[in-house]
From TrEMBL:
InterPro entries cross-referenced by the UniProt entry: AceGlu_kinase-like_sf, ACT-like_dom_sf, ACT_Aspartokinase, ACT_dom, AK-HD, Asp/Glu/Uridylate_kinase, Asp/hSer_DH_NAD-bd, Asp_kinase
Naturally occurring in which organism (per UniProt): Natronogracilivirga saccharolytica
Ranges where the ACT domain occurs: 401-479
Reactions listed under catalytic activity: L-homoserine + NADP(+) = L-aspartate 4-semialdehyde + NADPH + H(+); L-aspartate + ATP = 4-phospho-L-aspartate + ADP; L-homoserine + NAD(+) = L-aspartate 4-semialdehyde + NADH + H(+)
Name of this protein: Bifunctional aspartate kinase/homoserine dehydrogenase I
Gene Ontology molecular function, alphabetical: aspartate kinase activity; ATP binding; homoserine dehydrogenase activity; metal ion binding; NADP binding
Example GO BP: homoserine biosynthetic process
């Protein structure tokens, strides 16, 4: 035997009711269904309450609603029943509505609405819906009776929230079924009656309660609660997109999750079914074939250690602290006694074992009253400062992580707090019952969404991780990076269990954002057509709102202005990955601060592509430093552009022509003069020196500038390339001179005991850099360990493909 219950959302429209009637027999299957409980049509109970209140206030506008209510129910009959059955059904509805009209008029005349009349008035919602639905079921060939639950459920006269006389009720229900050969009953939810027949209602979740009572009376094998979600989800799907339905939950888990906001069941209402160990299945009326969630007695260890992460918004924390609490028996009793006397509901309690403070979470509406009550109760302790001020903190949320399997499983709390800590979420209070079923943390309300996501990610993704990437600068490097991610997304997902998502792209004009990840096919068009203007502040706010565990910003611009935002992102725990050398070549303090900020906020600031593009030059220096291997000399070619120019410059093509090709190949800086003037190479040398721990600045580096003096002023790159032609001869003379000496021209960077320097040198054909080709870079490090032969790294040192690959490598290094 089964019992079903459908809530108001399931019977919101005639179409939905007809759908239920059409698949109901299949849903019952081979088993028997003894009772199906329906709530009032969606919105009807609220409308009845409003009508009652207006009538009680002497406002006759309730009559208009009465008319519309009649219209809605008659309309439903017309839509669902054939004409031959309509007049009888309409007569039944009118009969009920006449009674409703009478009672409302009575309330209107005496201008007094008692709880008793309110219960009577609200009972019409379920009477009307169930009366109509039982006719619809019959029309669909389902053999059933209409059962007004007031004839079997007996309560006391606490109107609005009446207490059920369970023994009498269960007996009445069993007798009722005995006389009807267990035929299916369509039962009014929510309503009941006193012993003397006065209508009462069962309070919040009343229809669930009705169904649970019937399930208990009939010793049902299953109670099915049909609603508008697929079951109990692991978290709120509006906040955590990846939330999914749990197959099974224990009664305790379901109650904990419901208490903390997963409003699938109202705990007291499931007690009759729970105490008889009747499984409760939550199902979706809109998705009837989905198996839903079964809530029942937990038999064995389950697949998931935690079952859900829920939250309560908008709580206030009251902190009572002071030496007066230490070792004083009875203080807790006074605190809770005072609040209980004021009928204040306490949601969470924590006390440090030092007994120096007690924290209580209450609803904000109760906070001021609670504070006053405590001040009154503890006035003596407050006056002699044995209790410091009673502090109220508002705008907080409680996050609750629930799961029976947490019991005796070490490391769960650690995982929760690590996830919160990494995302820079401050915890104001923590509570865990000794049952270890629920770990709760009080946090700022603004951090709630982030907290739910990071905890969900930590527990439910198993080996799969998600990275949320935001790219500033969609030029050569940024563009290549976006294309690479687009092309490798599937590979990362299937082979590396890594979901690489790009959630934001900003160039100098536009900003494209998508919290679910931008579909990267055609990202250029999407960026061009978005209406959002470029705005790093808006991007930061978006990141804050949607932050997930692995959030990374990539600065692929050459702009100082973007560098100014790094601090703010790092402080949010967001990793910064950049090929842009500007941040690391401003003052030493800024360089240190960025690394410190990354460390303090448990995130990373990575800039491998600042030197040698995708080659691991920075990493090599970091490794020497980390292993205590003293570096004596760094020498190499660090400019891909200058390497290319002097590797190719043999007199067969003019120098200016080679610069143009280097630019076309994507080796140069946005302005090629930043390469030719030696500053790009100087920046790179400085970055390696700083990585080594040397507090140098750009001014400390001797730089040979190859840009003719007349071309150093304001001018765009194309004009520069045109004007450079005039100087081709001068460059050729320098080449001829080197050739005459049997030497090669190479633009070297050197860091040793002398002045750090970058300059064009004529080197012997045996010099390590003499064999470089194309845009190749080379790093030679002489250290204690590498003293006889230096450590050498060589390879392509510029260009979009290798650089974007280096950026992607840095992104991957940040993923936790
Ligand atoms: N080209 C290469 O081989 C290498 C380049 N780099 C560095 O990578 C960075 C990018 O270089 P490229 O892609 O070659 O330059 P690019 O000029 O092709 O691209 C830069 C992009 O940044 C955008 N931009 C400028 N200011 C911006 C702002 N405030 N907000 C958002 N976007 C902005 C521009 O619109 C442009 O699309 C530079 O810092 C460069 O030094 C590093 C290693 C190698
Ligand atoms: N313009 C730079 C690009 C890499 O940093 C170079 O030529 O090396």
């Amino acid at each position: 035997m089964q019992v079903f219950k459908f809530g108001g959302s399931s019977v919101g429209t005639p179409e939905r009711i007809q759908e239920i009637a059409s698949w109901f027999p299949d849903a019952v299957g081979k088993q028997q269904c003894g009772g199906v409980v329906f709530s009032a049509f969606q919105g009807v109970t609220d409308q009845l309450i409003s009508m009652a209140e207006r009538a009680g206030a002497g406002d006759d506008s309730y009559t208009t609603d009465l008319g519309s209510m009649e219209g809605r129910h008659i309309d439903a009959i017309r839509k669902m029943l054939p004409s031959s059955q309509q007049s009888q059904a309409i007569a039944g509805v009118k009969f009920l509505l006449n009674d409703l009209e009478d009672i409302l008029q009575g309330v209107y005349l005496v201008k007094e609405l008692t709880p008793r009349s309110m219960d009577f008035i609200t009972s019409f919602g379920e009477q009307l819906s169930n009366y109509i639905i039982h006719l619809v079921f019959r029309h669909h060939g389902i053999d059933c009776d209409y059962l007004d639950a007031r004839t079997v459920i007996v309560t006391d006269d606490q109107f609005g929230n009446a207490e059920v006389d369970m023994d009498a009720t269960l007996q009445n229900i069993r007798n009722h079924y005995k006389n009807r050969d267990n035929r299916l009953q369509v039962i009014t939810g929510f309503i009941a009656a006193t012993e003397t027949g006065v209508t009462t209602t069962l309070g919040r979740g009343g229809s669930d309660y009705t169904a649970s009572i019937f399930a208990a009376a009939l010793e049902a094998e299953e109670l099915q609660i049909w609603t508008d979600v697929d079951g109990v989800l692991t978290s709120d799907p509006r906040v955590v997109k990846e939330a999914f339905t749990m197959d099974v939950l224990s009664y305790e888990e379901a109650m904990e999750l419901s208490h903390f906001g997963a409003k699938v069941i109202h705990p007291p209402t499931i007690e009759p079914a729970m105490s008889r160990e009747i499984p409760i299945r939550i199902k979706n009326t809109m998705n009837p074939s989905f198996p839903g969630t079964v809530i029942g007695k937990m038999e064995s260890k389950q697949e998931h250690i935690i079952k859900g992460i829920s939250s309560i918004d908008n709580v206030a924390l009251i902190r009572v602290q002071g030496s007066g609490l230490v070792g004083m028996a009875g203080v807790a009793q006074r605190i809770f006694g005072a609040l209980a006397a004021g009928r204040i509901n306490i949601i969470l309690i924590t006390q440090a074992s030092s007994e120096h403070s007690v924290c209580l979470a209450v609803m904000p509406k109760d906070a001021a009253k609670a504070k006053k009550l405590l001040e009154k109760e503890l006035r003596h302790e407050l006056s002699i400062r044995k209790v410091a001020d009673i502090i109220v903190e508002k705008d907080l949320s409680i996050i609750a992580v629930v799961g029976e399997n947490m019991r005796n499983t070490p490391g769960i709390a650690g995982k929760i707090f690590q996830a919160l800590g990494r995302s820079r979420i401050n915890i104001s209070a923590i509570a865990q019952g000794s049952s270890e079923l629920n770990i709760s943390a009080v946090i700022q309300q603004r951090d709630k969404a982030k907290a739910l996501r990071v905890i969900h990610d930590a527990f439910f993704y198993g080996p799969r991780k998600t990275a949320n990437i935001y790219v500033f600068g969609a030029g050569l490097i940024g563009g290549q990076l976006l294309n690479d991610i687009r092309d490798k997304q599937d590979w990362f997902l299937t082979s590396r269990h890594l979901d690489l998502r790009v959630n934001g792209i900003m160039n100098s004009k536009k900003l494209l954002l998508d919290e679910d990840g931008i579909e990267l096919g055609g990202w250029e068009k999407k960026l061009a057509s978005t209406r959002k203007q470029a705005d790093p502040g808006a991007l930061l706010e978006f990141v804050k709102k949607n932050q997930s565990p692995n959030t990374i910003i990539v600065d692929a611009t050459a702009d100082e202005a973007i560098v100014e935002w790094y601090d703010a992102f790092l402080k949010q725990g967001v990793a910064v990955v950049t090929p842009n050398k500007k941040a690391n070549t401003n003052d030493w303090e800024q360089y240190r601060r960025l690394s410190d900020l990354a460390r303090d906020n448990d995130t990373q600031f990575l800039y491998e592509t600042n030197v040698g593009a995708g080659l691991p030059f920075v990493e090599a220096v970091k490794q020497r430093v980390a292993s205590g291997d003293e570096i004596h000399r760094i020498e190499g070619v660090f400019s891909g552009t200058l390497s290319y120019l002097f590797n190719k410059f043999d007199g067969s093509k003019p120098f200016s022509e080679l610069v143009r090709v280097a630019r076309e190949n994507g080796y140069t800086e946005p302005d090629p003069r930043d390469d030719l003037n030696g500053m790009d190479a100087a920046r790179k040398l400085l970055i390696l020196a700083r990585t080594q721990g040397k507090a140098l600045s750009l001014d400390d580096i001797e730089v040979e500038n190859l840009v003719p003096e007349e071309l150093r002023g304001d001018m765009d790159p194309d004009t520069f390339l045109e004007k450079l032609k005039v100087y081709d001869e001068a460059f050729e003379q320098r080449l001829d001179q080197a050739k005459k000496e049997g030497k090669l021209l190479r633009y070297l960077a050197i860091l040793d005991d002398g002045t750090p320097r970058v300059r064009l040198e004529a080197v012997d054909s045996g010099h390590p850099v003499s064999g470089l080709e194309g845009s190749e870079n080379m790093l030679n490090i002489t250290t204690d360990a590498y003293s006889e032969t230096p450590l050498v790294i060589k390879g392509p040192g510029a260009g979009p493909v290798v650089t974007a690959n280096g950026v992607l490598n840095d992104i991957l290094k940040t993923i936790k």
